[in-house]
Amino acid sequence: MAQDHGKQVKNDDTYEALRDQGASKEKAARIANAQANDSVNETGGRKLEERTKDELYDEAQEIGIEGRSEMNKDELIEAIRNH
């Protein structure tokens, strides 16, 4: 059985599996929580490509991606996916 990671992580099994695969704590929590919410998040569950550059920039800022102000939309999408 998966360890309880507190209120911030909504799907502990998915979180632990992602961490075992080498995902960062932030990325594992984000994915686990999205799955627990049936993939609906603050942006309505839209794919990254469907979001505006401003929405992507805000997410990149929230997760701490450096150099985001110099990135175009495609670069922001790639950076968010690889975080």
UniProtKB/TrEMBL annotation:
Residues 48-80 form the Rho termination factor-like N-terminal domain. Residues 1-29 have a biased composition (Basic and acidic residues). GO terms for biological process: DNA-templated transcription termination. InterPro entries: DUF7218, Rho-like_N, Rho_N_sf. Pfam families: DUF7218 (PF23855), Rho_N (PF07498). SUPFAM superfamilies: Rho N-terminal domain-like. It comes from the Bacteria. Residues 1-48 are annotated as: Disordered. This is Rho termination factor.
